[in-house]
């Protein structure tokens, strides 16, 4: 889990260095909000995805460009 969290944060940081030309809006940066879940033996795919989705929305609500770990 720690390695996955670190990898996800490195990916998020790398994306944050990217820019693109948005025409009249000028140069824009890329951000990424991510939700991460540790899957247990009791989880099925649906329950794991549901918890990851909740973590993703928590990241967006926290101001975006961050990673949240599901409970």
Q: What share of residues is helical?
A: 40-55%
Largest sheet: 2 strands, antiparallel
Which blocks of ≥5 consecutive residues have pLDDT under 50?
A: none
Q: Which term fits the overall shape?
A: elongated
* Count of distinct strands: 4
Q: What's the number of helices?
A: 2
Terminal Cα span: 13 Å
Write up what this structure looks like.
This protein is an alpha+beta fold and 71 residues long. The protein is 45% helix and 17% strand. It has 2 helices and 4 strands. It has helices spanning 2-16, 45-61, and strands at residues 19-21, 27-29, 34-36, 67-69. The strands form 2 sheets. The chain has a two-stranded antiparallel ribbon. Strands 3-4 form a two-stranded parallel ribbon. It is elongated, with a radius of gyration of 15 Å. The two termini are 13 Å apart. The model has no long low-confidence stretch (mean pLDDT 93).
Question: Quick gist of this model?
Answer:
The chain is α+β, with helices and mostly antiparallel strands. It has 2 helices and 4 strands.
Keywords for this structure?
about 70 residues; alpha+beta; two-stranded parallel sheet; 2 helices; 4 strands; elongated
Spell out the blueprint of helices and strands.
Blueprint: H1 2-16, E1 19-21, E2 27-29, E3 34-36, H2 45-61, E4 67-69
Parallel strand pairs: 3-4
Antiparallel strand pairs: 1-2
